[in-house]
Backbone:
């Protein structure tokens, strides 16, 4: 679960940096009291949790149906780990490039009470190397409970970045967030490259 937690930290920092431009103005709009922001953040977090629970369930059953042959179970996941981990590290190195946040779609939502829900859905389904890695891991777990635990650790790690948002107006250290995020992303990428190589070698040796 530790690797999933670190992966979540890297994912959450990237989301906060790229999508903060959308989330911060919304959270600080109107009577932006700590209570109001905390309430919206709670809805946002619950939505993310439900989406990850759904993804974990679908991913595990998909893995049970697909990863039945030894080659599919021992070779393909290893290759996917390596490919997605390399993309994760590349994403970390290229973090300073301009990114478009998919959460901008919420600007078209008329019912403001639904915005935290839409933000939670878009944030959870924003396809990135970190999400691809946790999907791969979930699909290769032996039990559904292990898959849930992996996604739970990923959710907790990614959620840590959003907890200070009720105090969003006092957060000024964007460079600190970016630096921690880059380090976490690089560490997560390295962990899963090693894991991918280990799985791949084991699959080639054991057939």
Residues:
């Amino acid at each position: 679960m530790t690797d999933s937690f670190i992966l979540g930290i890297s994912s959450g920092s990237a989301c906060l940096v790229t999508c903060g431009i959308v989330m911060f103005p919304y959270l600080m709009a109107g009577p932006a009291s700590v209570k109001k922001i905390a309430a919206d953040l709670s809805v946002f977090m619950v939505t993310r949790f439900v989406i990850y629970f759904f993804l974990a369930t679908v991913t595990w059953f998909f893995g049970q149906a697909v990863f039945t042959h030894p080659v599919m179970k021992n070779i393909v996941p290893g290759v996917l780990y390596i490919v997605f981990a390399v993309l994760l590290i590349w994403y970390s190195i290229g973090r300073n490039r301009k990114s478009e946040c998919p959460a901008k779609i919420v600007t078209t939502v008329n019912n403001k009470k639904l915005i935290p829900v839409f933000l939670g859905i878009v944030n959870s389904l924003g396809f990135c190397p970190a999400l691809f890695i946790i999907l791969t891991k979930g699909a290769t777990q032996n039990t559904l409970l292990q898959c849930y635990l992996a996604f739970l650790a990923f959710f907790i790690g990614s959620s840590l970045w959003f907890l200070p948002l009720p105090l969003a107006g006092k957060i000024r250290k964007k460079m600190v967030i970016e630096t921690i995020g880059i380090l976490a992303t690089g560490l997560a990428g390295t962990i899963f490259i090693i894991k991918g190589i280990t799985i791949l070698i084991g699959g080639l040796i054991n057939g």
About this structure: Residues 34-66 form the longest helix (33 residues).
